[in-house]
Amino acid sequence: MIIEALIGGVLIGIAVSFLLLFNGKVLGVSGIISDLINKPIHNNYWRLFFVIGLLISPFIYNLYKPMPVPTTTTNNLMIIVGGLLVGLGSRYASGCTSGHGVCGIARLSIRSMIATITFISFGALTVFLMQRVFV
Amino acid sequence: MSSLIALFAGIVFGLGLIVSQMTNPSKIIGFLTVGKHWDPSLVFVMISAIFVSYFAFAYAKRRRASFFNLDFEIPKRTEIDKQLIIGSALFGIGWGIVGYCPAPAITALFFGNPQTLLFVGAMLIGMYLFRVINK
Fold this sequence. Notes:
The structure holds two protein chains of two kinds.
Chain A (H helix, E strand, L loop, with lengths): L1 H22 L5 H10 L6 H20 L11 H17 L4 H10 L3 H23 L3
Chain B lengths: L1 H18 L5 H7 L9 H21 L20 H17 L3 H7 L5 H20 L2
Helix pairs in contact in B: 5-6
């Protein structure tokens, strides 16, 4: 489990490094997606290609072995609420797990460290409340 | 060429998420669960991702431009304001409710699970709402 986590992290780090050192861009997925839907496609092609890469990665993984099936644990209403909050919140914060949590901390940004601590804390609090209070 | 790098980065990033099982919401919920059932995987993913990325950002700092001679677009903001904290808190709540952040949700679309589709749809609406509210 730890080995897979470490290997996964190295792959994420390699992706960040390539996008930065070749293209000069910071790999922040919420920013990439929101620019893709909100800005004209002109000068936006790299974002489209990045998202296509994300979408085809499971096909490539499946050539090696079947990808573990994701399991969601909540009802449709909560899925919608969660999705809206993730979309809106990541834009207000100008970043999510990749932009703040990986890239921001890697460039030693205090702003990103504070963002990361905040979303992990609120995430943990939410899970606690959902498990203890609502169930 | 920069589109090809973006495609490569998307694929490698996606593979990193799959290998470390970050595409599985129950792994994220496990990480956000305080107590003896805590799943530390995400910590190891972040440690190795940040470790690799750190060297890329440190190297980028010493260069004038990227390998493709493109300007580095690295965030310069340092302020810790209300927007950052509230945004991160909202993001964390949504992340805790479902267990998806933007990249894993896009990657997990592969399975065609209706709840993943619902989440991505709501997330895109959330990002769009941010633009509408902040016009």
